[in-house]
Amino acid sequence: MCEGCNRRRFLEGAAASGALWALHFTSRAMLGGEESSGIGPTSQPVKIYKVYGGRVGDSYLTQTPEELERLEKYFAELERKLGDVKFIGGDMIPPATAEQIAPKLSGADALLIVHLSGHGGVAPVMNKLVEMGLPTALFSRPFSGHGWMYFPRWRKQGCKIILLPTSDINELERAVTLLRVPARMKQTRIIVVDGHPHGTAAACRPEEVKKRLGAELVAVPHDRILETMKAVDLKEAEAEAEHYWITQAKRIVEPTRTEIIESARMYLAVRRLMEEEHAQAICSDRCMGDPRGCLTFSKLNDLGLVGACEGDIDSTLTMLLFGYAFGVPGFISDPVIDTAKNVMIHFHCTSATKMDGPKGERLPFVIRTQSDNRQGVALEVTHRVGQPVTCAKLVNLETLLINSGKITETSTSPLACRTQFAQSVPDARRLFLNWGADVIDTPGTMTLLHRVVFYGDFMRPAQELCDIMGLKLIEEGGA
């Protein structure tokens, strides 16, 4: 694995996600040449409180005043770059005490500590701030004193903290990007069609989702979507179908032009509904109806929103977390295992075409029927062979199952859903025998089966995301 390549990929994604998700919280924003029409509430910047631990000077194991100036300049530039972050505070311990700083944290979304110096005496003071429970990142360069040896204890104790013992200041961008996620989840509204989410027990309870992640589940009847569709002008639907689907497809196999236009009409209706509800995501178990929701969810995911099929609330939440953190959409998959090739094969009929994110190029696609009954309109998307991917699923609002690999091949088997590709795994047999890692205890094929695939290798930042979200990470199929 190329650490430099992965780090560069993350930082590019982090910058993209900052701009992307800020757009969805700002009215009349332009995204990919398309007007978002004000999806989501008005953005409130994520407030991150800065604290400097230790003194500056010219003594042994102490950062210089010039270094503090460089840090302040870096934070100002990072604030401008990300666009939706505001750094506040800037207290230095000492002379400030934890008792003086603690009341100021009440208005902050996250805490950032920069370890400047100290042999350990400053650690107990910072410990009082860390234990207040805000998502926290701590940056400690080499030669900043011996206090670093106390910091790992906070993580072991379950504190929500990212630890950065590094000489590379740019790693702070990754940490700050992740610190935004809990605040953004608290601003999130998810439309659940007919109010019937499917998934693990905790995720299906709106009060638990609100308590643990901050997101709000909003029940909307399917009939409201159908009524909204009737109000969509036919010419607008025709233009949408032509512009985004018909003229961009490699070819059209089974569906008629009328069927594609009706699918575009559904997309416009759902998007209008999301605007009315200030929602960033929708999940529906009515997506197999007439018209089907495949094109609707594909377009929403292309735009950086979340459209999740089969009412899968676990996958919906997984896609939101990765979207806020990394700026990429997810592909909900019905996986199977092939030990002969040591791969996990992913397939489904709903796939985004911009898997690199809204600013990325579209993948080639063919417009087909859905595989299940050869009806409706779906996509056969050709995914990129050699592309690093991460496969994940949030379970019971407390555990993230995850593994990573590369796309090894694509296929078009008539036995599976339209979009198909294989992902390399360390040990396919071990993955098969330990599927679900004994943490999925909810009956139901979809709940146990579905996983979400994202472009990019996010194993390390996903662990850091779990650290500040209070989640447990399990490498599914790992040793």
Number of domains: 2
Determine the number of helices (DSSP H or I, runs of at least 4 residues): 15
Low-pLDDT stretches are 1-5, 7-12, 14-33, 35-42
Structural class: alpha/beta
CATH class wording of the largest domain:
Alpha Beta
Q: What proportion strand? A: 15-25%
| Biggest sheet descriptor | 8 strands, mixed
Q: From the 3D coordinates, which CATH architecture of the largest domain would you assign? A: Alpha-Beta Barrel
Give me the count of strands: 22
* Helix percent band: 25-40%
How far do the termini sit from each other?
18 Å
Shape: elongated
Q: CATH fold name of the largest domain, please?
A: L-fucose Isomerase, Chain A, domain 3
Walk me through the topology:
Blueprint: H1 3-24, E1 30-31, E2 34-35, E3 46-53, H2 65-82, E4 85-93, H3 98-101, E5 110-115, H4 123-130, E6 136-140, H5 151-156, E7 161-164, H6 171-186, E8 189-193, H7 206-212, E9 216-220, H8 222-231, H9 234-246, E10 251-252, H10 257-277, E11 281-284, H11 294-303, E12 306-309, H12 313-326, E13 331-333, E14 336-338, E15 343-348, E16 365-368, E17 378-381, E18 388-395, E19 399-410, E20 419-424, H13 428-433, H14 445-449, E21 451-455, H15 459-469, E22 472-475
Parallel strand pairs: 3-4, 3-5, 5-6, 6-7, 8-9, 8-11, 10-16, 11-12, 19-22
Antiparallel strand pairs: 1-2, 13-21, 14-15, 15-20, 16-17, 18-19, 18-21, 19-20
Helix pairs in contact: 1-12, 6-12, 6-15, 8-10, 9-10, 10-11
Fold and architecture overview:
The chain has 479 residues and is α/β, with parallel strands linked by helices. The protein has 2 domains: 140 residues, Rossmann fold (3-Layer(aba) Sandwich); 289 residues, L-fucose Isomerase, Chain A, domain 3, CATH 3.20.14. The chain is built from 15 helices and 22 strands. α4 links the parallel β5 and β6. α6 crosses α12 and α8 crosses α10. The chain is elongated, with a radius of gyration of 23 Å.
